[in-house]
Every structure is written in structure tokens, then in C-alpha cells.
Amino acid sequence: MERLSEWLTRDTDKLFESMDKVQRTADECASKVSGLAHVVGELRAREDRNDEFMTSLLQKSENMELCKVDAGRYDDDLEALYKRFTAMENYNKENHIHYVQIENFVEKYLPLKQQKAIGKTILSLFEGKAGAAI
């Protein structure tokens, strides 16, 4: 029996040693799991921030899509604008020509009109004296 007791004591000690090793390993694993759980939590937080950032980028790109200028429409609008400027320039040239014509008329014929009015006034003065003398 003594042998059995010795054998059981030895096996029990080995069992306790094994259990201590298992406990230490379990504690180490629990510590690692706790650390990894913390890392996973941080990664999830980063993922959430990245999701928000991606959503923001998507909204901005959709807004850019709405606000971008169509090249064909831009060219058409630019051509219409050039046509309006050309029409205004032509109208301005026509008005300038008309202004120059009026200015020439005034420079040439206004002095003649004034001279005619002065001549009529002088004639009426002389006619008045000749009529009074008679």
C-alpha cells in the first residue's frame, strides 16, 4: 500500500504541476485574449471612422457629379456667348458709324443753317429800314 500511496502522491504532484502549467497557460491565453479584444475594439472603431469617411467621400463625389460642367454644353454656351458679343460689337460699330455721320452733318450744315438765319435777320432789318423810309 505504501507503494500505492507513494505512486498516488507522485502522480498527484505531477497532476498538480500539470494543472499549474495549464493554469499559467490559461492565464497567459486569457491575458492575450484580453489584449486581442482591445485591439479588435480599436480596429472596429477605426473601421467605423473609415466607413464615415468613405460615406463623406461618396457624398462629395456625388455632389461633384451634380456640379460638374458638361463639356458639350459648355462649348455650346461659349459659342452662344461669342455670338452675342459679336452681335453687340456689330451693333456698336453701326452706332459709331451713325454717330460719325451725324457729327459730319452737324459740322458741315449747322454753320450754313446759322448763316442762313443770320442772313434772314439782317435782311429783315434792312427791309424794315427801307419800308420805314418810304
Would you kindly provide a brief summary of this structure?
This protein has helices at residues 2-67, 71-133. With 134 residues, it is an all-alpha fold.
Report on this structure.
This protein folds into 2 domains: 1-68; 84-134. It has helices at residues 2-67, 71-133. Helices cover 96% and strands 0% of the residues. It has 134 residues and is mainly α. The protein contains 2 helices and no strands. The mean pLDDT is 87. The protein starts with a helix and ends with a helix.
Kindly list the characteristics that best describe this protein:
134 residues; 2 domains; 0% strand
Describe the secondary-structure layout:
Blueprint: H1 2-67, H2 71-133
Strand content: under 5%
Low-confidence stretches: none
When the domains are counted, the total is: 2
Helix/strand class? mainly alpha
Radius of gyration: 55 Å
Helical amount? over 70%
Q: Shape, please?
A: rod-shaped
Residue-averaged pLDDT: 87
Q: Order of SSEs, N→C?
A: HH
Largest sheet: none
Distance between the termini: 188 Å
Compute the number of strand runs. Answer: 0
Count of individual helical segments: 2
